[in-house]
Amino acid sequence: MRFLIIILAFFLFSFSNKEVKDRIYLELSKNNLYEAEKLIYDVLKENPYDTDAIFAKSILILKYAENLNNKNLKIKKYQEVIELLNSLQKKLNGFYYYHYIKAITLEKLGNINDAIKEYDNCIYYNKKFIDAYISKAMLFWKLGNIDESYRIISLVQDKYKVKMLKAWFDYQMKDQTSIQTLQQILDNPLFYKELLNNRNVLNELYFQIMWIRHRFNKDDLYWIEQNEKFNTNDYYFSISSALYDLYNKNDEGATKRLISIISKYPDKPYAYFLMYEILKKHDVKKTKNYYYFLKKAVECDLYNLDFKNQLEKEENNE
Fold it and tell me: Does residue 29 come out as left (phi exceeding 0), alpha (psi in the -120 to 50 range) or beta?
């Protein structure tokens, strides 16, 4: 799933200084992590043991870590987050969002069993927090346990969300008929209004529909345009723009755009995969330079069965 709903966490903070709290919210909404960090440290200067400020610091470090390119440094930062969270265990044990942040961090460190336990704790303390269900379901999806993913999603107490998420899973399994279900849900004004409250899910939903339509060799201009209009995730928006170039047979423009995306997001897979597709199409001299980009896509998303299968096909053809 994408990244945690940071703003929700900060909305729950109880800094005594309301002005500081509002400033932190503002800077985070702009993704100005440096400014938010300064404000948090101002609170810590006054009280180094302020629980809310320490929790805020752990979320910031987690966010910073996601933007790092060095894997060893990433791991070091994730471990730092766990240390901070462990120091708050007595005070925040039972606070659902504390368990959620801990679960996400443990998952990134590859500590799957403990991550699942923390997702369970989060759900136990707040059964209406849909992000925990989604994150846990996606974890089992990545592990190849589709049945468990379905079971977890079925626990969500909202029939429209259950319907949407199950259709989403079906769609990732190359079930083309599920697009009709997704379209019906998105056309439901009541559900769409509710879904807007969870921007991350909406961004992911729009992007996955667009991407899998592309993988079906059915570049769908409608879904590309929907992403360009409504997807607030910068990476997903950029990929949709590259797909728009490809749709219009502008491979050169798409290539330039993809190089820029890779420079900005070197640890995300989709731009690499599109570069692989473009270079393979134009590889008249059989240099197989495209092979590098396919391997990079797999390295960036080890759980993506589609990318892995494509790599196996290339290896078998050598």
Answer: alpha
With bands split at pLDDT 50, 70 and 90, how would you rate the model's confidence at 133?
confident
The architecture of the domain spanning 230-318 is Alpha Horseshoe (1.25)
C-alpha distances out from residue 185 to 130, 181, 190, Å: 17, 6, 9
Compute the distance between CA of residue 171 and CA of residue 207 in angstroms, rounded to an integer.
12
Q: Which two tokens stand for residue 32?
A: 């100005």
Own/partner long-range contacts of 97-100 (Cβ < 8 Å, ≥24 apart) = 97/8, 97/9, 97/12, 97/122, 97/126, 97/129, 98/55, 99/125, 100/4, 100/129, 100/131, 100/132, 100/135
pTM of the model: 0.56
| Spatial distance between the Cα atoms of 225 and 46, rounded to a whole number of angstroms | 49
Closest listed residue to residue 134, CA positions, set 150, 118, 121: 150
Q: Identify which of 62-66, 104-108, 137-141 has the greatest average pLDDT.
A: 104-108
For 7-21, what is each residue's pLDDT tens digit?
A: 344 444 444 466 776
Q: Do 77 and 63 touch, CB atoms closer than 8 A? A: no
What residues contact 279, with CB distance under 8 A and at least 6 apart?
Answer: 289, 290, 293
Pair 274, 306: CB distance under 8 Å? no
Q: Is 255 left (phi over 0), alpha (psi -120 to 50) or beta?
A: alpha
